[in-house]
Amino acid sequence: MKAVLWMMGTLASFTFMAITARELGDNYTPFQLVFTRSVVGLVLVSILLAYFGQFHLVKSPKMHIHVGRNLINFVGQYSWFLGISLLPLANVFALEFTVPLWTLLIACWFLNEAFTKTKVISLFLGFIGVLVIVKPGADIFDPASFVVILAAISFSTAYVCTKYLAETEPPLVIIFLMCLIQLPIGFAFSYQDWQVPTGIEWFYLFVVGVCGLTAHFCIARAMLYADAGVVVSLDFFRLPIIAVVGMWLYNEALDWWVLLGGILMLTGNIINLNAQRKTPRPSEVTEGG
User: Per the domain annotation, does 221 fall within a domain?
Assistant: First the structure.
């Protein structure tokens, strides 16, 4: 039950972040949204570091990994916000479900994890799911789908780097350095077009920053109370929820092909997670947030 409650927080966070990003999309560039998310995140994480007395831990012998990770993550966040402004919300969320599949592929390459038959099946189902959603060659094909796929690949690469960093560094330090590194990059690309928020825009920008942190915090807490396969299954409810929200708020048509593609990717993810649960993992490889 606790896992379900934490996942409700995750679903709410991702949903509100998507809605507020869409509302801000007409007046603010994706660069400005990434910058705002970094500012809010830096303030909140600094408060947490001070509260837990961990500011002295903000140092790293792997700073080059942090810089590389966050440059890639910046590309991912920019692409995700851009996708929100170009595609139906359900399409963005569905294509984002490829993140575990790209992570699997990248981890096999960079971390020398075994490339098993189960992983091949998982990747195959995920790839078919992407084709079902993107519909290459069809009249309704939208090239903007590749923007979200780029976001998913970027997030996956960042997750693999996080997995490596988490062996020796606390999660709060990793998040703090992420916000610290991405903040000046976002500012450099957005200051010329920046405009002072007015009225409700202040609230929307704050929600974008807060929800970016609470979504990942809630899913990490859910992992403490339930198996990863259960958490991934619950996370899938993001797709029908955002589809209904998109239809209600933005008159976006319900696309059953998107749901089918999402189910195929979910199936691939669960198959891989079940195989990992049954196979002992090397002690030197730990999970990162």
Answer: yes
Domain membership flag for residue 285: no
pTM reported for the whole predicted model: 0.87
List the one residue out of 269, 218, 260 whose CA is nearest residue 239. 260
Residue 245 within any structural domain of the chain: yes
Is the residue at 252 inside a domain? yes
Q: Which of 81-85, 166-170, 257-261 has the lowest mean pLDDT?
A: 166-170
**Domain around 268:** 2-278
pLDDT in tens, 5-49: 999 999 999 999 999 999 999 899 999 999 999 999 999 999 999
Lookup: tokens for 238: 């993001």
